[in-house]
Amino acid sequence: MAPLKSIAVLTAGGDAPGMNAAVRAVVRSAIALGLQAWGVRRAYEGLVGGEFLELGARDVGGIIQRGGTVLQTVRYPEFEQPQLQREAIAQLEARGVGALVAIGGDGTMRGAAALDRLGFPVVGIPASIDNDVYGTEISIGVDTALNTIVEAIDKLRDTAASHRRAFIVETMGRHCGHLALMSGMICGAEMTLIPEREVSAEEVADAVRGAYARGKTHAIIVVAEGARLAANALKETLDRMNTGFESRVTILGHIQRGGRPSAWDRLIAARFGVAAVERLHAGERGLMVGLRAPAIIATALQEVCGRKREPDLEIYRMARMLAK
Ligand code: F6P
User: Distance (Å, rounded) from C-alpha 17 to C-alpha 25?
Assistant: First the structure.
């Protein structure tokens, strides 16, 4: 196998805060390993159409803190066609590109897996606010989206409590309840509706009525966009069933996808970016990098005392590699 000389990177699917930090990490670590780096604009459609731009270290300066993706993205279901996949590989090979890093969600990984099956070296980086990508505890963008939701619900709670209202807040997440579940938990929602669990409008009404009876000044119900009971249908039922609270619906929508990436998203973006390039450089392929988050554990107090947790010096190494 010829040694790897050049890699390309693309972002695909819905944008996610932190994608730019990942692009920067891919480009800078590739350069640090002596590779040429290319960016592909507009995801797989741009790959098929040959929208390549060579990227140097300076080209990815000043993007670490920016939401969205400087490479732009497009949904391109047509990429399921093998003919288009072959054209994509021809475009890569015409420029001497020996490997691709694909940043995105499950659709992006399907495209990456197709290229892998056709024999082209690819490594994926999970980035999707939905957090529905298999093989990682968390994808790039989830933490920022959650922070956006929490900020929005905190504001809604202020007005809800002032008016004694129940707010039904719809979060994104497509068919996955992760964003709703997490935000419901950390915002103290009376109830959270997710696609993975069925709840009747009557059950929600009972919970809201109970909150009113306990003297609460407000109620928050978080509804994932994929939940079987839609936010507006739920409002109609709550109004009909007279829970004590007046109700309002807020659909957070695409606001959840924008904004400056959080510290956590920048950190995993940097780590995933370096890991993806290092794996390709080492000859590995057909993989997606991911994070296995630690579980809640308990440690004997006697063991904790007198010891110190050391920082992760692997990050020290990566940070030096990216500071170019
Ligand atoms: O996958 C990310 C996501 O924001 C989903 O949560 C949502 O269902 C979908 O994308 C919206 O897609 P679009 O940006 O094409 O409207």
Answer: 14
Ligand 1 neighbour 216 (Cβ under 6 A): no
- Whether 314 is in a domain gets the answer no
Round to whole Å and give the CA distance between 189 and 50: 48
The string of pLDDT tens digits covering residues 284-320 is: 999 999 999 779 999 999 999 999 999 899 999 999 9
The residue written with tokens 């004997």 in the block is 300
Q: Is the CB of 257 under 6 A from ligand 1?
A: yes
Asked if 107 and 152 sit in the same domain, the reply is no
Q: Is the pLDDT of residue 156 over 80?
A: yes
- Domains held by the chain: number: 2
Domain with 234 in it: 145-257
State which ligand 1 atom lies nearest to the alpha carbon of 130.
Answer: 6
Check if 174 has its Cβ closer than 6 Å to any atom of ligand 1.
yes
Mean pLDDT, the chain, integer: 97
Alpha carbon distances (Å) from 21 to 45, 166, 313: 22, 38, 20
Secondary structure class of 298 (helix, strand, coil): coil
pLDDT at 69: 98
Condensed to tens digits (0 to 9), the pLDDT of residues 175-185 reads 999 999 999 99
